[in-house]
Amino acid sequence: MSTVSNSSSNEQHHLARPAAYRRVLLKLSGEALMGDDTYGINRQTIDRMVREIAGVSAMGVELAIVIGGGNIFRGVAPGASGMDRATADYMGMLATVMNSLALQDAMRQVGVVARVQSALKIEQVVEPYIRPKALRYLEEGKVVIFAAGTGNPFFTTDTAAALRGAEMGVEIIFKATKVDGVYNADPALHPDAVRYDRISFDEAIGRNLKVMDATAFALCRDQRLPIKVFSILKEGALKRAIQGDDEGTLVYA
C-alpha cells in the first residue's frame, strides 16, 4: 500500500515541478498541424498542441510562438510552380497568418488568452508587430503568436523565430519537429543513427547538422540563444523540456 502511495506522491512531485525557464519561444512548423492529413489543419492535432501550451502557460511561463505555413502552402504549391519567389514567399506568410488565427482561436476555447501580431500589416484581421506591446503582453501572461515570418521574402520562419526570440529576450528557443532531437544521421534512413543529448553550435556546424536554416542558426549562435529540438508528437514533451528534463537535444553556445 505504501508503495502505491509513494509512487503517486512522486508523480505529483514531477507534475508540480517548476519551469526551468521564465520566458521562451516555441517554433512550430506548419506541417506539425497537419497530423496524418496531407495538408491543412487537423483538429485533433491542434487541440492536443493547445492543451500542452495551456499547461505550460499555467506554470507561469511567458510564451511566444512562431508558426510556419507549410501545411497550407503545400496544398497550393503545385500551382505556384514557376512563380516569382518573392510572390510565393508572401503567399507563405499569409498561410502563417491563417495558422496563427486558428491557434489563437483554439487557445481561446481552452481559456488561454493569446494575441496575434503580424509582420505584414493586415489590421482588419490582426494587429501589426509592435515590440513594446508584445513584451507587455508577455509580462501580462498572454501568449503572443508572431505571424507572417519576418515580413520579408527570402527568409524562413526559422529566421523569424530566431529574430523574435532575440527581440523578446527569451532564454531559449524550443523547436518542435516530428523528430525527437538532433541525430548524427537521418534516423528515417539510418536506424542506427545516434541522438545527441547536447551539442554546441560549433560542433553542429562542424558536423553539418541541419538544426535550423543557416541564417537563423547563425543569429542564435551570435546572440548565445540556445535551441532545444524536440518532438511535438510525444505527449507531454513540451512541458518536460520546459521543466529542464532530458528531452530532445540542447544546442548551446
Q: How many distinct helices?
A: 9
Q: Alpha-carbon distance between the termini?
A: 48 Å
Question: Number of domains in the coordinates?
Answer: 1
Beta-strand percentage range: 15-25%
Radius of gyration: 18 Å
| Assigned CATH superfamily | Acetylglutamate kinase-like
Which structural class fits the helix and strand makeup? alpha/beta
For the record, the CATH architecture stands as: 3-Layer(aba) Sandwich
* DSSP strand count: 11
Q: Average pLDDT across residues?
A: 89
CATH topology title: Carbamate kinase
The low-confidence runs, each spanning 5 or more residues with pLDDT under 50, are 1-5, 7-14
Specify the helix fraction band: 40-55%
* Main sheet: strand order: 4-3-5-2-1-6-10-11-9
Order of helices and strands: HEHEHHEEHEHEEEEHHEHE
Top CATH class = Alpha Beta
Largest sheet: 9 strands, mixed
Comma- or semicolon-separated keywords:
globular, 253 residues, 9-stranded mixed sheet, 11 strands, 42% helix, disordered N terminus
How would you describe what is shown here?
The protein has one domain: Acetylglutamate kinase-like (Carbamate kinase, 3-Layer(aba) Sandwich), CATH 3.40.1160. Helices cover 42% and strands 18% of the residues. It contains 9 helices and 11 strands. Helix 3 packs across helix 4 and helix 6 (157-168) packs parallel to helix 8 (214-222). The protein starts with a helix and ends with a strand. The model is unreliable at 1-5 and 7-14 (pLDDT under 50).
